Amino acid sequence: MAEITHIETLTGLITLDLAYNKLTKISGLDHQSGLTDLWVNANSISGMESMEYLVKLPALDVIYIGDNPVTKEAGYIEQIKANCPKIKQIDA
Predict the structure, then answer these.
(1) Cβ contact 87:63 at 8 Å
(2) FRET label pair with 50: which of 12, 24, 65, 77, CA 20 to 30 Å apart?
(3) CB 60 within 8 A of CB 53
(4) Mean per-residue pLDDT pooled into runs of 10, the chain (92 residues)
């Protein structure tokens, strides 16, 4: 699965575990305003646009994003914190 699709009707999600799915970006979560935990570790997410997309998840306070190419880019943690003011945990 390269993209997150077919979850727009699941508007009550709190935790979403998409680890190990070959995702290339974070998107398709526009209707998940109550999502607090997002697990996207061990995918193929690259590019800071996925970090910028997180602003659409205002309740997000936990993200597991390790083992993705984006984690090798300078400033990715700061970008997550800037877009997710409630974030308490990034990876372990």
Answers:
(1) yes
(2) 12
(3) no
(4) 84 95 94 95 95 94 97 94 94 86
CB 37 within 8 A of CB 18: no
Please name the amino acid found at residue 87: I
What residue has token string 């709190």? Answer: 14
| pLDDT for residue 44 | 97
**Do the Cβ atoms of 23 and 45 come closer than 8 Å?**
yes
Domain ranges within the chain, ordered by starting residue = 15-90
What does the H/E/C string look like for the chain? CCCCCCCCCCCCCCEEECCCCCCCCCCCCCCCCCCCEEECCCCCCCCCHHHHHHHHCCCCCEEECCCCHHHHCCCHHHHHHHHCCCCCEECC
Could you tell me which CATH class the domain 15-90 is placed in?
alpha beta
Give the pLDDT score at 59: 96
Global pTM value:
0.93
